[in-house]
Amino acid sequence: MNQVELLFYGGLLIVIIGLLGVISRKNLLSILMFQELSLNGVNLVLVAGSILHHNYHGAILSFITFIVTAAEMAIAILILLLLIKKRKTLDVTFYSELKG
Amino acid sequence: MFKFTLGLSLFLPLILLLLPSQKERVVAWVNMGIQLLLLALFFTMLTNSELCEFSFTLSESLGLHYHLLIDEFNKYLILLTALIFPLVTYASIDFIKTEKKLFHLMLALSYLLIVQTFLAQNLLFFYAFWECSIVPMFFIIGIWGGGNRLLATYKFVLFTALGSILMLAAILFLVVANYKISGVFTFELQPLLRLQETLPLSAQRWAFLAFAFAFMIKIPVPPFHTWLPYAHVEAPAPGSMLLAAILLKMGAYGFIKFVLFLFPAVVEEWRLPLMAIFVLGALYGSALAFVQNDIKKIVAYSSIGHMGILMLGLVTPSESAISGAMLSMLGHGLTSAALFYSIGLLYERLHTRDLFHFGELATTMPRFSLLFFLITLSAMAVPPTLGFASEFFIFLGAISYSLKMVITSNHYLFIAVSGAAMLTILLGTLYSLRLVKYLLWGKKSEASLLRAGVRDLNLGECSVFTVLLLFIFVLGIYPQFIIESFKLAIKGLSIS
Amino acid sequence: MNIFYALLPENILVLALLLFPMIEVLKLKSKALPLTAFLLATVGALAVLAIHYQQALEVTLFYGHYQVSPNLQAIKFLLTFSLLPILLLREQIFIGHYKYYFLLLALLYGSMVMISSGSFITLFVGLALLSIPLFPLILNGPIQKESSESAIKYIIIDSTLTALFLLGIAFIYFASGKMDLTIISSDNVLYRFGCLLLLLSLFIKLAIVPFHPWSPDVYEGCDNRILYILSVTVKATIVFVLWKIFANTANFLNYPWQAIIITLSIASILVGNLSLIKQTSIKRFFAYSSIAHMGYITLILVVTNVSIETIAIIIFAYFAIYSISMLLCLLPLGNLLASADQLSLLEQFHQRSSTRSSFLSFGLLSLAGIPPFPGFWIKIVIMGYLIKCDYTLVAVIAFLASYIGIYPYFKVMGGQFFGAIKH
Amino acid sequence: MSELFLILFFPLVGFLINGLWGSRLQEKSCALIGCAFPLLSLFLLTYKTAVSDFYGVSILFTWVSFENLTIDFALKLDHLSLLMSFIVLGIGSLIHIYSTKYMHGDQSFARYFSYLNLFLFFMLLLVLANNLLVMFIGWEGVGLASYLLIGFWYKENENASSGAKAFIVNRIGDIGFLLGIFILAFHFQTINFDEINRAASTANASATMINLSALFLFIGACGKSAQLPLHVWLPDAMTGPTPVSALIHAATMVTAGIYMIVRLHPLYMQATAVLPLIAVIGTLTALLGALVATVQSDIKRVLAYSTVSQLGYMFAALGVGAFYPAMLHLFTHAFFKATLFLSAGAIIHALHGEQDIYKMGGLAKKMPWNMVAFLLGSLCLAGVPLTSGFISKEAILMHTYSHSHSYSQTLTILLLITAALTAFYISKTFFLVFLPSKNGSEKPLHAIAFAMSLPVIALAILSIVVGLFHIPAFMENYLNLAKSITIKEEAHILIPALSLSLSAFAIAIAYLITVKQIKIVPKILEQKFYFDHLYEKVLLSTLRAFCKRVLATIFEVKIIEAAIWSMRDLVLFSSRRVTLLTNGQIQWYVLLILMALSLLMVWWFYV
């Protein structure tokens, strides 16, 4: 299987690992890292697409995703700082009072 | 003239809203004054017998015409409403102690909605006012009701809402079917009437079931009647007067207008099961009325019995049965309003509704017992009253139709059904006499709370009774001028 | 020049956005300046949008990545207009007008970009712009402990959403090589899977049933202004985007799509109304009612035998009525929600202030869909169109599901007058 | 013609005046008004019949008109209804005068007279009706008036309940009556008497319809005239004041059934299947009434059961087609039974309300006039020759004997036995009350006013006079009812001989028993053939139990309410399940999204 399919399946694999990581990890910070990972995985798929179709749409979009994920993670980590100051813990299970 | 009356009834709630809430009596008398004026206007309008119509189109594409028409069917129901409402307002002046202004607002609101429901010719507007009339009743029972009024209100709301939701689905189905066939998307009743030839019978059956289900809940026909005793026992006296006198008639009126006219083929096909359901319902209602110990429950179940007979009259395709049913709508409306008013009076004086707490009212409250006895006469269908006239016509129609069926297609079930229907008269007598015996005659039972100081009726209360009794006896002795006006309406139903 | 003119509304917003850091830098302490800036920007944008609509401006910019057309402008008009009532709602937590209005403008800008996006790239940018400003807004809810928890939940759900959304776009791009929004029905497995991902990720944002659990928790945490934005502006943009992508490809929606959308929306009406019954907190009550309402409107996507414009009008009218009823509910509450968030607060509300309680009951009745109130008419229109393309059974089930909802609305409304909103 | 309505409405005016302003007027003026109006209408009636021959129909207004049926509110006066209205007004006015004194001192005096006038109005309406509907209005109205009058002293609970019982049993009959009206209305498209009679005799009237309508009308007559299955209310109706029993439960109301059948006798001539049934029921009631009367201790109950048996006689006559003898017996019975009741009333009034005949005795000397009246009345009842009772009873017996049916012989024998029993119990009562005996009470008698004894004596004379001066022959051609039986010649000698010997033998035994104070009371008679037991314990209580237990609890609560509550629980259960979906953990939400995604993907590809 040629390079493009390799890239495609590689990216897909990374996305799946990222999502599974989000579900399984306990620490909030690691959850955020895994989400970052899944977003980057998608970039790989996009780049594979643009190689296959010889146009730059995929590349532009992957470039924009970098910006967006960076912005998102920045705000997310800031909020995490606030949480640690207030709740002194990063364990996800503690953040489950709102229910019903 | 018609626009003016409609406009006035439309703005009645608004006028009340503006009045200051401290001066309750002013609000009450303004409300009653306007309703009396409306009664006069409706009366003058109806007697010169040109059918008034009023319509403007809301949106042509969706076929929403706000189309109101007074025809033979709802003419007398409007008069009944216009007559009952001033009495209810008068009764509510001394029965309702708290939040008087809100109560009068609710009364004005329900007046508006009921009149519109009766007049609406556009199916969607009929549905809209039909469903919205639940809200004022919800508040009336909920705020001023008796013991566990919450259960009663929610049961009432949920029951009627369930029925009307299915009706809405049926309306939409009909309208779209008409749209597919005739290309016109309209909610008007007239174009839909032509639908009965084109629509396949199976589709008509489903639509019939949905409509009939909605009206059967409102009429209450026994399998779906359990909300009525709760609603009546818990509702304040004016509320239950309103509920019994007019809201039950909306179900019956709807049945005529939207079932008998729209699906005659289905009604023809299922005539016997329908008659059987209504008669069994009537027997069931009157039988239960015989064993209740709470006087309001007795009257509630008795109105189920009467309504069952009324529906029997509607379903039989004979001219006398249907005009009897229309007459019995008026008759039952007047009698049940008077009965609930008297129970309200008793409750206000003795704060009890248990049958065995009364006794010897004939001596302590002679005027009340005379009037109460005359009303039970009409409930028992004793000759000179309207109750008798209407039941006589209904049974006349039912028996002659079933005899015709026996002769033409020797179908014996009809005779059995209408024969069983006659038993309701006996059951009616049983529970009315039981009511009268424990209330009026007999010695003051030791459990009775009859203190010496129970005051008899004052002039105002007597006038309420006399107005109702006047109509009951006059219409009972001379029902011809009402029957006359139904003649051409019944032609429309193409009855043999 | 006409590029600048075509993008004028967006440019006004960008200008205002640039203005805000300036205020921060110059340390101007006047409280009124951010509010006036926000008002000026929104009213200016509204005016320009109206003018564009007059001129029926029809332009595609940036090689098809950005479209401007009359009905798109009209939709943008509705969205900005639906944002204005925020000023009427009293805010609970003062996080500095400057930051608050800045984020609102960013949010508005994001929704505009999303609406007039021509290709997936601009669409993705718009989506990002739509969700990121919400993080800090939700964080600053009335009770610090709860709002922080709901903020973190919103972040995680949102990032998974963007991941799935991007994955969908990637698959479509990988299969078809094109980025524009016109979906064609092809039997290429990857392409169809990409569209499925796209649709479902937007459904997550709309909180349709299988993806709905996040929204009650988030709604409970944030204050009632953000609650209004979340339920009206954000969801309206998403539905219009769905309409843009999926509605105009009539042949595309063959059997499996319609089935998915119908089951999901019926399920969301059912779940939304069912869970209303046992609710004790007012905000969660509104969350579940918004889930139910989204269930209704997604049904309209299934209607095929009607022109695209009529569907747009229906969605337009639906959200207009929905926002009015939400306002009718939220305005009377005022700062009641600041301290506690219990439904029991509403008991005897009528005795305390009769006018406010009557407005609240009007709002609740129109949410429940009782006839004379607007909520009922729009439901009739939707169900009418559904039955027109003979989904009669679907319509009947939808009616029954909405019937279940009547009890909780009446219970809350009645509670104001009778007291004791117990089950 | 409008005088007919005047005659009718005078009692109504009396009712209204006494009813509305009665409590304000003192007793004397109430009595005056009460008696004046019936006398006025009686006078108007006699004056009109004497002066101008104003028979015929007068229509007030059309009550209702459908396509194939028009019913109008019309009155009709012909020989038959003239005779009946004479009875009603004549005896009615006498009883009004009698009760002015009898009810003297009762505090609701005005109410009593208003009810009596109301009764007269409805009875006249019934008698003068031109069609079945107006008769039905009178029919029910009379039932209503009797309910009010029986339960007049409503203080005691059982008075009210016996009034209710009377009304309910009447209503059972009325349902039958209504059914009869509907069948006639359906078949003949009219309910006017003469049109029905004319149509019935034509060929095309179907036999089944005629028989059915005759049967149902007969059920109505049974309810009103207290025949076998529905006779239980008459003895209990004695709780009302005695003049009421005299007027309503002896002379007028109970005869309504017979009048109705005589009015429709052409219809009944055609109803060949129903006539034997009427005859059998009539005879059985006569026998049962007489048997039970023999053991009654209360004087009014004795007379009540004797009325039941005499009515049985009349129905037996109708059964065999002897319409004229039935009317004759009705005519004579009205007079002598009224005399008996009024004199019994006087006795009770004198003994301060004592009604048990075993506690009375030796009143012959104390109340001579009363004794003479009671004697005359009982002679008529017993059928002693030269009395009116004898003539009408013999006529009936002769007709039943010469009736051509197989069972008519057995009927005659049974009727003869009842005649003997009647003679026995009436003479027993007479001897017990009037012959000197030790258990008579010595208390001073309550003075009997002249106004009370005058009507008693007048009625006694009338009951004798009616028999003599071949009035019966005059009446026969006056009423010219259809005759279908030719009396066998040997009947003229055999019947009178047999009945005479039997009644003489019965009187002798009665004398013996009263002298020896033998009091044998067979159990079954004691319990009035367990009919009361049947109605009270068996029918009513099972109905009440059935409704209460089966309908009210099982059906209403168990089935319908349970169904609703289970739906409610289902909704609540599912709402709990649904809210559990949001359990707060973020990871559970993301997991939910992925699971849903994969599920839809699988469904997407395999669909």
Describe this structure in words.
The complex is a heterotetramer of chains A (about 100), B (about 500), C (about 425) and D (about 600). Chain A has about 100 residues and is mainly α. Chain A has helices spanning about 5-25, 30-55, 55-85. Chain A has a single domain (about 5-90), classed as Helix Hairpins (Orthogonal Bundle). The longest helix of chain A is centred in the C-terminal third of the chain and has 31 residues, at about 55-85. Chain A starts with a helix and ends in a 13-residue tail after the last helix. Chain B has a domain at about 270-495. Chain B has helices at about 1-20, 25-45, 70-95, 100-120, 125-130, 135-145, 150-180, 190-195, 195-200, 200-220, 225-235, 235-260, 265-270, 270-290, 295-315, 320-350, 360-365, 365-380, 385-410, 415-440, 460-475, 480-490, and strands spanning about 55-60, 65-70. A two-stranded antiparallel ribbon of chain B has the order 1-2. Chain B starts with a helix and ends with a helix. Chain C contains 19 helices and 2 strands. In chain C, helix 14 (about 310-335) packs antiparallel against helix 18. Chain C is globular and about 60 Å long. Classes of the chains: A mainly alpha (about 100), B mainly alpha (about 500), C mainly alpha (about 425), D mainly alpha (about 600). Chains in contact: A-C, A-D, B-C, B-D, C-D. The interface between A and C is large, with 45 and 43 residues.
N to C succession of SSEs of chain B: HHEEHHHHHHHHHHHHHHHHHHHH
Strand-residue proportion of chain D: under 5%
Lateral strand order in the biggest sheet of chain B: 1-2
Shape of chain B: globular
Point out poorly predicted stretches of chain D: none
Q: Which bin fits the share of residues in helices of chain D?
A: over 70%
What fraction of residues of chain B sit in β-strands? under 5%
Q: What's the short story on this structure?
A:
By secondary structure, chain B is an all-alpha fold. Helix content of chain B is 77%, strand content 3%.
Task: Jot down its keywords.
heterotetramer; C: 423 residues; mainly alpha; two-stranded antiparallel sheet; 19 helices; 1% strand; D: 607 residues; 25 helices; 74% helix; globular
List the helices and strands and how they pair.
The complex is a heterotetramer of chains A (100), B (496), C (423) and D (607).
Chain A: H1 3-24, H2 28-53, H3 57-87
Helix pairs in contact in A: 1-2, 2-3
Chain C: H1 2-6, H2 8-26, H3 32-55, E1 59-61, E2 66-68, H4 70-83, H5 97-115, H6 120-131, H7 134-139, H8 144-176, H9 189-206, H10 214-221, H11 224-247, H12 255-276, H13 282-299, H14 308-333, H15 336-339, H16 349-352, H17 354-368, H18 374-388, H19 392-418
Antiparallel strand pairs in C: 1-2
Chain D: H1 3-21, H2 27-51, E1 56-65, E2 70-77, H3 79-102, H4 109-127, H5 132-150, H6 157-188, H7 193-201, H8 207-225, H9 233-236, H10 242-251, H11 256-263, H12 265-270, H13 274-294, H14 299-319, H15 323-350, H16 363-366, H17 368-382, H18 388-401, H19 408-434, H20 450-467, H21 471-479, H22 491-516, H23 523-526, H24 531-580, H25 586-606
Antiparallel strand pairs in D: 1-2
Helix pairs in contact in D: 1-2, 1-4, 2-3, 2-4, 3-4, 3-10, 3-15, 3-20, 4-5, 5-6, 6-8, 8-11, 10-15, 13-14, 13-19, 14-15, 14-18, 14-19, 15-17, 15-18, 15-20, 17-19, 17-20, 18-19, 18-20, 18-22, 19-22
